Amino acid sequence: MVHSYLLLLLVCNNGRVTKLSFPNFNITNPIPASICSLKNLSYLDLSYNNLTDHFPTVLYGCSALSYLDLSNNLFSGALPADIDKLSSEMEHLNLSSNGFTGSQQAYNKKLHELVVFNNSFSGVLPANIGDCQTLDNIMAYNNNFTGEFPEKVWWAFPMLATVMIQNNGFTGTLPSVISPNITRIEMGNNLFSGAVPSSAPGLNAFKAQNNQFFGALPANMSGFANLTDLNLAGNRISGSIPPSIQSLKSLNYLNLSSNQISGEIPAAIGSLAVLNILDLSNNKLSRWSPASC
Questions:
Q1: 3-state secondary structure (DSSP) of residue 125
Q2: From which domain of life does this come (predicted)?
Q3: pLDDT (tens digit per residue) in 77-129
């Protein structure tokens, strides 16, 4: 029989339990293996509790599970090498804000969300991430990941909208064109290098501060027409700020500080009507000549 604390909130479908949701219930007891006697259980949320020890392999027996949220607990240690024994139906896996360590294991190809931020994971991402064509979101920030971030992610995933991998040790480059489906990239405080992409038509936010990007900004900035936030501070960007920056009509935040940008600050910046924050400090710019303020 399933433990009593797991009978407090449930959703039934045709008399069968399909969903258990217990966020912030101060649960400390280990997850019982008997939970998997609920053969139709597809959704399990145990976030914001005080669960401890290693990843609960008892969940391997929940064959219908497609949504698992273990975030904001006290789990620790490396993920088991056989974590692929989790349900083959797994689409949403949230392990964020725990104390997990070690390398990531192979991902289920059906994953829609990879949410592992605020842990101490290290090493490279599994090679099979390129096979996860249904990914909507990658949230792996605030870990100790290293190695080359797979370039395929930036252009080949038809459903991917958000990539948040800041505060790691990733290396790699970006392609010249980012998928139009990607709306948010946060990759600050890594070791990425190479040129800034020439086009990312779907991006609203591009935060790539404190990396090693170099070269000039794209001469034609119209490929970033939907940007509201652009942060390239602390790189090695050179050349001048192109007048085409005026095409970024929705830009609210622009930070190009601590680069090697030279020349005049273009009057075109003054035409950005919704620009709220501008930081061009610590460059080699000669003067400020806005058309309007």
A1: coil
A2: Eukaryota
A3: 999 999 989 999 999 999 999 999 999 888 888 999 999 999 999 999 988 88
61 token code pair = 């027996």
Summary mean pLDDT of the chain: 92
Q: What is the model's pLDDT at position 4?
A: 41
Domain 1-148: CATH superfamily is: Ribonuclease Inhibitor (3.80.10.10)
Cα distance between residue 250 and residue 183, in whole Å: 14
- Cα–Cα separations (whole angstroms), residue 223 to 126, 128, 177, 202, 208: 31, 30, 9, 9, 17
One of 3.80.10.10, 1.50.10.20, 3.20.20.60, 3.40.50.620 is the CATH number of 151-293, namely 3.80.10.10
**All structural domains of the chain with their residue ranges:** 1-148, 151-293
Q: What are phi and psi of 9, to 5 degrees?
A: -130, 120
What number of other Cβ atoms are within 10 A of residue 47's Cβ? 20
Which residues face 146 on adjacent strands? 169
**Stretch 36-63: mean pLDDT:** 96
* Contact assessment for residue 174 and residue 194, using Cβ atoms and an 8 Å cutoff: yes
Q: SS3 of 243, please?
A: helix
Token digits for 117? 């931020």
Contact between residue 236 and residue 260 where contact means Cβ atoms under 8 Å apart: yes
Alpha-carbon distance 157 to 114, whole Å? 14
∠ CA 230-243-177, rounded to 5°? 50
| DSSP label at residue 196 | P
Report the predicted TM-score, pTM, of the whole model to 2 decimal places. 0.91
3-state helix, strand, coil in the chain (%, to 5): 15, 30, 55
